[in-house]
Amino acid sequence: MSFNDKMFSTFGYKALELIFGVDEASLKEEEKRQLISLSIMMEKNAALGVKVSEIINSNLENEEKLASFFNLENSGEIE
């Protein structure tokens, strides 16, 4: 079981706040699923993990971070 799997098993959607630093309560169901998908892809792609870390550590507001995460999740860079 991966680290993120353990996080989701223990904390449910609250793990999204712990992993990505975004307000889980403000997310729509589809957005939560996209972030879970991104967390799975991060574990398989170190370069993607680095990009996510850069977004997490940035000074962006919650909405801007989410947009950046969704752009990563939807981009061809993660394949």
Low-confidence stretches: none
What is the SS-derived class?
A: mainly alpha
Strand content: under 5%
Main beta-sheet annotation: none
Order of helices and strands: HHHHH
Query: Count of DSSP E strands?
Result: 0
Arithmetic mean of pLDDT: 89
SS element count, helices: 5
Q: Report the radius of gyration as a whole number of Å.
A: 12 Å
Shape: globular
Percent of residues in helices comes to 55-70%
Measured distance between first and last alpha carbons: 22 Å
How would you describe the overall organization of this protein?
Helix content is 70%, strand content 0%. It is mainly alpha-helical and 79 residues long. The longest helix has 16 residues, at 29-44. The protein is globular, with a radius of gyration of 12 Å. The model has no long low-confidence stretch (mean pLDDT 89).
Care to give the gist of this entry?
By secondary structure, the protein is an all-alpha fold. The protein is built from five helices and no strands.
Layout of secondary structure:
Blueprint: H1 3-11, H2 15-20, H3 29-44, H4 46-56, H5 62-74
Helix pairs in contact: 3-4, 3-5, 4-5
Overview features:
79 residues, globular
